[in-house]
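Objective 1.3, modelling of assemblies. Example input:
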Amino acid sequence: MATTVARTLDVKGQSCPVPIVKTAQAMKQLGPGELVEVLATDPGSVKDFAAWSKTTGHQLVETSQQDGVFRFVLRKKG
Amino acid sequence: MPARVVVLGGGVGGTLVANLLEKHLKQDATVTVVDGTGMHLYQPGFLYVALDQANALWLTRDERTLLRRHVELVVEQATKIDPAAQTVTLSRGGSLPYDYLVLATGSRLDREAVPGYDGTHDFYSLDGALRLREELRRFRGGKILVGVAGIPYKCPPAPVEFVLMLEEHLRRRGIRDRSGVTLLSPLNRAFTIESASKLVQPIFEKRGVELRTFFNVDSVDPVRRNVTSIEGESADYDLLVLVPPHRGSAVIEASGLGDAGGWVPTDRNTLQHTAHERIFALGDATDLPISKSGSTAHFEAPVVASRIASLVRGTAPKTAYAGRVMCFLETGGGRATSLRFDYAHPPIPPRPSRLWHWAKWAFNRAYWITVPQGRVG
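Predicted structure (tokens):
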């Protein structure tokens, strides 16, 4: 199982629904089990990513926050 | 010598900036609007045309009639901007020099970006709205899906408004019981703004409108009448209405002045291009993370006009844009709500009422004689 991030997505400054849509697009390019890291500043994205992960089955491995930037790491299902 | 101000685009933003500049600066500036069609379109009306509630003539005016007498109008496409030489190249080969340039070039629909888009309908252009109107007139029942095929897109509440107004339209025609109405949402709720979602989702439930969440449209198979999402799901339809993907204008892309999507990198307060201080941008053209809507352009225009006037006169700029946006949201049944917000304050929409519906109606009627001239602030 991959432990290094295959792709980083910087959506800082973008508001909803950009972070989710860009992540969905990026996920399509990844292989099963690969990790994508998302950097966002929209506080609403915390709830959005939790719900998106539950619905789509892509696992939300990590959620953290530093200096106003949220970091999400998601693993592609499969 | 008067300062030369060139405004690209004769939509809400461009028209208002040009009129305000001419009013503020009089003989201190020459103001020229360059527009490819010379026709001004009231885009919020597309929704009503598609649903047979308004005719198309109401939505178009000759741009000349909306501009102050001393504003020059050039009906030609701008094809290239050279920020170093400070010139704009026109489609018939001429060129316009400028001291200050305003990019009010809007957005362009990029339907080809979605495989199979041909088999779908939209209400994001006048042609699209008229075609959808014909299709709906022929519609005798079936499954209607309404979705979004790319972000960002103009007027974020429009898909929600459309499904609610469509539901009412089908009921009025007596074919509601033979029809399904579904909104395919990019998120886990009806609308990006949470407070607005909380308000409309109970209305969806009450009216039997289905909400399908996390469905970001990827491709369409018009033969099998099936749409697939990026998330890997699919849905069958009899009529598919999709908000087309949007991009920045061709002249921005051809001049290397935009980002990957063709949007102009814009300072969120001064509305100047982040790399060129003599170039300003407003409305859909910018990369700002706020709604692409006429109201955004409307509220940005006085800031752009006042800041250019300050530069021309050598005075300190007095205004900055604080992210102000205001939208009406029709919820059907003769009711509407409103969303008012800025960078610092999220909207708190009031309960849908007849008052907001009439406010929207009055605004639609009064648009031509108020907004382009700067009579409402």
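Chain B has a mean pLDDT of 95.
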